[in-house]
Design a protein that fits this description.
single chain, about 70 residues, alpha+beta, globular
């Protein structure tokens, strides 16, 4: 039996912490500029990112800094 746990969903505050910024405006500006992934889902005006989406973005940023 293959039982998968649901993926963790992050709201803006943990995303800001993972991004290393203090303002949600930075996140929204980067989404608008295409340099940060948009939320994966919106429910009742709350935006959620999958933890894997943020990790992929972090991995991409680290790889781009290394090259």
């Amino acid at each position: 039996m293959n039982t998968q746990l649901p993926e963790e969903l992050l709201t803006i505050n943990p995303v800001m912490k993972a991004r290393g910024c203090k303002s949600s405006t930075t996140i929204w500006n980067e989404i608008k500029d295409g340099t940060f992934p948009p939320p994966d889902m919106v429910r009742k005006r709350i935006r959620y990112w999958r933890a894997s989406t943020v990790r992929k973005w972090q991995d991409h940023e680290v790889a781009s800094l290394a090259s």
